[in-house]
Amino acid sequence: MSYFSEIPTITYEGPASDNPYAFKFYNPDEVIGGKTMKEHLRFGVAYWHTFTEDLSDPFGAGTAERPWNHLSGLDLAKARVEAAFEFFEKLGVPYFCFHDVDIAPEGETLRESNKNQDVIVGMIKEYMKDSDTKLLWNTVNNFSHPRFVHGAASANNADVFAYAAAKVKKGLEVGKELGAENYVFWGGREGYETLLNTDMKLELDNLGRFFHMAVDYAKEIGFNAQFLIEPKPKEPTSHQYDFDVASGYAFLQHYDLQDHFKFNIEANHATLAGHTFEHELRYARIHGMLGSVDANQGHPLLGWDTDEFPSDLYATTLAMYEILKNGGLGRGGLNFDAKVRRGSFEKEDLVLAHILGMDSFAAGLKVAQKLIDDGVMDNVVEDRYASFNEGIGKSIVDGTADLRSLEEYALGLDGIQTRSGRLESIKATINRYLLQAYAGE
Ligand code: XUL
Ligand code: CO
């Protein structure tokens, strides 16, 4: 059965093309800074948004028209697998990602859920044999079912902790079976709604214990995926424990988990935390903790996690700048944790949305590499901090200065010269690079 037969295989036609079913900027074989675009970008399709999502929102029912909507149970799950691998091939995406409940229906019991998963995981494994698409990461959904109303690993109820642990155990086994390169923990309900009934210390300690159990079990079964924490400040909780990279990193260090995890950074989670996307990438990068990316964007006028497909070239450029400066994402990738808008309910929109996301990051990559090659930001930064390269500045950086030596120096100063940060000029330069990157093509 074919689900996307009317849709052609998407190929690169270049910026001048007006064919909606073609890449304008994503040219998988084009070499940028010594690596192909395909090697740099490692795109992933999020199974939940593309094959499971019905596009409902808190105010209205689902609108998604999908050729598998008439099915249910395991038949529906199987149809989605067929559709997914056809979709991956049409777009030439190298990776996909899923939660346990995205791929297979939950049963009445944990045992039944596991059995359903086994059926679908077996089918996915077969499809993967004939496909170039691999599993970037899997995870388990420990937040949707009512049993997780008060959290999972940070729940008040030990039975819920045990149930969540059992689901992660299965998730790790599934990840190993399908050769996942990473395994993600997003703490959907690992937080609280109010401190009035919350033992924060016990919840955080339990979360730490939970992660150690996962690390130990992965080691035991020989599943050597990179573990990733995906920070988000809130939603659905009013306060999520892994609020942002900085608080997540402090948590990992406190519980001695920092060597076992990196971060999966989502653009819209960064902005919900009051940061820019590039702030979260930079914070992770400079601490050696940048693992992978959930590539999406928020709506500037809405305060929640809208999970839009990335279209903002300024944001993708600055994100790719951080990723290039990181030397790439290693075994991580750019997973489109993004959904088409509720009004974009036709199946064609799924393809068009991925083309938009892939092209946006490809263009960002090209501009970012040029900015790096020409030292645009590096030169500004080097010049701005030059006072730390010699004299008193050098003594601060190399640790030979102390308050006494600094006082002596400051007392001898005859005024301090400060200089402009030239922000507007830098922005004008970035605009020029953005507009010139494809000039003449
Ligand atoms: C929710 C979110 C999740 C994680 C995986 O905001 O981003 O889909 O990516 O659980
Ligand atoms: Co995400």
Please, could you describe this protein's structure?
With 441 residues, this protein is α/β, with parallel strands linked by helices. It is built from 16 helices and 14 strands. It has helices at 37-41, 47-52, 73-91, 100-103, 110-129, 158-178, 200-221, 245-254, 267-272, 277-286, 313-325, 347-373, 376-384, 391-397, 403-411, 423-436; strands at 11-12, 22-23, 31-32, 35-36, 43-46, 95-99, 134-139, 182-186, 191-192, 226-230, 239-240, 261-266, 290-294, 334-336. The chain has an eight-stranded parallel β-barrel with strand order 5-6-7-8-10-12-13-14, surrounded by four helices. A two-stranded parallel ribbon has the order 1-2. Helix 3 (73-91) packs parallel to helix 5, helix 6 (158-178) packs parallel to helix 7 and helix 11 crosses helix 12. It is globular. Cobalt (II) ion (CO) binds next to loops. D-xylulose is lined by residues 99, 139, 184, 186, 230, 232, 266, 294, 305, 337.
**Proportion of residues in β-strands:** 5-15%
Query: How many DSSP H or I helices?
Result: 16
Largest sheet: 8 strands, parallel, barrel
Helix content: 40-55%
Number of strands: 14
As laid out across the biggest beta sheet, the strand order is: 5-6-7-8-10-12-13-14
The sequence of SSEs as H and E is EEEEHEHHEHHEHEEHEEHEHHEHEHHHHH
Characterize the overall form.
globular
Determine Rg (CA atoms, Å). 24 Å
The overall average pLDDT, rounded, is 97
Give the ligands present: D-xylulose, cobalt (II) ion
